[in-house]
Specification:
The complex is a heterodimer of chains A (389) and B (370).
Chain A: E1 4-5, H1 16-22, H2 38-58, E2 65-68, H3 71-82, E3 88-92, H4 97-108, E4 112-116, H5 126-132, E5 137-141, H6 155-165, E6 168-172, H7 184-187, E7 191-195, E8 206-210, H8 225-228, H9 236-255, H10 257-275, E9 279-281, E10 292-297, H11 302-312, E11 314-315, E12 320-321, E13 327-328, H12 331-335, H13 340-344, E14 346-350, H14 357-376, H15 379-388
Parallel strand pairs in A: 1-11, 3-4, 3-5, 5-6, 6-7
Antiparallel strand pairs in A: 2-8, 7-8, 9-10, 10-14, 12-13
Helix pairs in contact in A: 1-9, 2-9, 3-4, 10-14, 11-14
Chain B: E1 6-10, H1 15-26, E2 30-37, H2 61-74, E3 78-82, H3 84-100, H4 107-126, E4 131-133, E5 139-143, E6 148-152, H5 170-174, E7 176-177, H6 185-194, H7 216-226, E8 236-240, E9 245-249, E10 272-277, E11 282-286, E12 292-303, E13 313-318, E14 326-334, E15 337-347, E16 354-359, E17 362-369
Parallel strand pairs in B: 1-2, 1-4, 2-3, 4-7, 8-11
Antiparallel strand pairs in B: 5-6, 8-9, 10-11, 12-15, 12-17, 13-14, 13-16, 14-15, 16-17
The chains are: A alpha/beta (389), B alpha/beta (370).
Amino acid sequence: MRRVYLDNNATTPVLPDVLDAMRPYFGEHFGNASSIHHHGQETRSAVERARESVATLLGCRPAEVVFTSGGTEADNLAIFGLARSGDHVITSTIEHHAVLNSCKQLQERGVEVTFVPVDGRGIVNPDDVRRALRSNTKLVTIMYANNETGVIQPVEEFGKICAEADVYFHTDAVQAASKIPIDVKTIGCDLLSISGHKFHAPQGIGALYVRKGTKLEALFYGGSHERSRRAGTENVPGIVGLGKAAELATKGFAAGDDRATAALRDKLQTAILDKIEWAGVNGQGAARVPNTTNIYFDYIEGEALVIALDLKGLSVSTGAACSSGAIEPSHVLTAMGLRPDRARASIRFSLGKQNTAEDVDFALQLVPSAVERLRELSPLYNKKTAVSS
Amino acid sequence: MPTSRTIAVAMSGGVDSSTVAAMLRADGYNVVGLTMQLWNQRRLAGREGMPEAVTGRCCSLDDVYDARRVAETIGIPYYVVNHEDRFERDVVRPFVQEYLSGRTPIPCSLCNNHLKFDQLLIVAQQIGAEAVATGHYARVDFDEPSGRWLLTRPTDRSKDQTYFLFGLTQEQLSCTLFPLGGMTKPEVRELARKHGLALAEKPDSQEICFVPGGDYKRFLDAYLAEQGDSLPDTSGELVTSDGRVIGEHTGIHNFTVGQRKGLGVATGSPLYVLQIKGDQRQVVVGEQENLYSQTLIARRTNLISIEELLEPKRVAVKIRHRHEPAPAVIEKRDADEILVTFDEPQRAVTPGQAAVFYDGDVVVGGGWIA
């Protein structure tokens, strides 16, 4: 059976070039980057080259890049590295759980947290952030692009507000990296998280940009790795993979990859909306990353649609999965004010660099008939048609 | 090659439903495994009187893990579907309400009616399956002469679950498979071993899936506390059947009809709970002999082997899960109400439980004891 993967906001395949770059570091070049001998020096220089590639992608200095085990650790390092009991932190209601649950944990530890809302498009109003500032505000942490809708936040405005107020600004850019150009100076952020596996590096590697001079406390105690910000022997193959993926992302922007992805996404979205009634885009009217579209199909259960499509060979997703693998109602769509039934009827399609026009055509063959079948068997839909006929 | 039929198997992570999935797969069906996520076992964990962590139970991560392993072993697609909202609305809240009203509920029947054979069936059909198979011990067959789908007691009488299935409609039964109806439990375990299922020796679960340790009183407390509510005061008087007050009780939800222990009064002869008067918060107690009833009223009835009960019918009626069906006559009282008259008076007819009518092995129908 043909299988097409359109769930790249969950994770992406490691690109062949990335895998090729990593391969020697599993065998031939196995040294510990902290060792003084030849083997150590080999891997040390690989780590530092990767750091340069990541710095280039983010527009920062290599010394400002801290490698972590992924986006979650980067977010935790930023948040717990700064906030202390008695501080105030501002975040939004649509953050990834890595930030949301970290902020809830801060509350347990005596930190006050304000969760600013979003509008119907999923955008945080900068004025809400400004109004939420207090004398003890230490940190504002608001994501760059949302994982479910792809909606881009006005991070530069948050950056200005935070600079004026002399408050740290962290942004979770896990879903922005390699999809839209990132420049930490333009954003004006002090900290920024990325995750390798969201842009074709392997799972288990990420990075946190930490602006020079930021007083950040480490999460782990151990050796003095990563300038004492992240103890633990470096994941050299992962770091090399992240560096290669960053390099490919930088080249991709020059080659217009993001525009090509947007064209594919737009084709998929337009055709779906053309073919299927009672459907619409979540985050309509907002700037979005080019690879993502989140669409509601009224009168269906998104969960059933995801399963039905999976059985036909198409991988897409809805909301966030809980530990059992069941789907939880999306806190993002709910925060945007969607009715609960519409939030449950929403599906996310997200493209990666490996996807082709044929993949989109494949999806377009499957989605309309699957939605139709679900609606035929939906008590809600039948009630609706009974009423209207 | 013709496309083979697609069947969804409701997988709980136990031996029975796992074996069903393996059997159907071996028979050449396209099998899709589905587990319903119904209750977050961690939700009330750690609250007053509740265990910290719950493992090895329905909807626990361990069971999902077991079901997933089985799906992997036998090579079928497997999904967990979230029906927590519906379960809370249609099963948990009514369960709590029933206890607070002085009745003794059966959540498993509600779950069968509203979740397993309703929501899950809809999901199954939506994803292209034509039927749902479960690990229940019961039989379902189409009866040509009557043109009806019949629910019949299984080969393994000790496992008979027809009592919990009386609410299934003809439409639901027509899309349901009970592959274990002709097998005994030891045979099922043997088959599980033959299919190489690691959980072949897993013990049976007995208790209500969302009530850890079977302690429903603690559950009521913890659930209501979580809802920002406290257990309403349902304490009141212990009275005799002629209305004489002989003591106090701590709350009607602590009692069930037929209960002897824990009444907190000492008298010459043993006393039993005869009746719970929810509106007056009274618990009526009396002697064992007064526990017997000749009749009962079944409400919200569902008929299976017959479309309508046009004239009185001789059947055997089961009034609780572990009750030997007793000979009786059923007759229609109202649109939704059936009067059951037993040949011999039955002990402890308990409001909130089901009365299920059998004609031999065939389930005629049933209703909720008023």
